[in-house]
Amino acid sequence: MKLWLLRHGQAEPQARRDADRQLTAHGRKEVLQSAGHLAGHALDGILASPYVRAQQTAELVREALGFAGAVGTAPWLTPDDDPRDVLRFLDGRDEQNLLLVSHQPLIGALGGLLVHGSRDEALPMGTASLAELEGDCPLAGLMNLVSLYHPGHS
């Protein structure tokens, strides 16, 4: 299984609610840079947090890749969700090439849990950072970090 973890691009600093914050022009550019690293990889699905900035990020990636499927909304991918809960939700999924679009601190902690077996060893995920993980299944400590891309730092 290949699992890609993508943090949303840079978002506006304020909105009525945190969930309503939208991507900035710079954030859109960052996302498109990261999407370029997904080119050539066949995705079975894209799941994103319901927050506006994550949905916008996922949609930009979907369009850039020409992915025919819809972006799925995963209510368990919000910033303060527990990465162990994410693993429980992933356990019942059939995709072998899945992109998750989420936020800090969840996305870094999830990567750390999958690779190191501990959410305390979080992956460093700046805005629009993309981690590629590979393993037999998404279980704590059983996936390998294949690559970690940070836009603007390649």
TrEMBL record:
One Gene Ontology cellular component: cytoplasm
GO MF terms, alphabetically ordered: protein histidine phosphatase activity
Pfam family name, one: His_Phos_1
Stretches of the chain forming a coiled coil according to its record: none
CDD domains with a match to the protein in the record: HP_PGM_like
The name this protein goes by in its record: Phosphohistidine phosphatase SixA
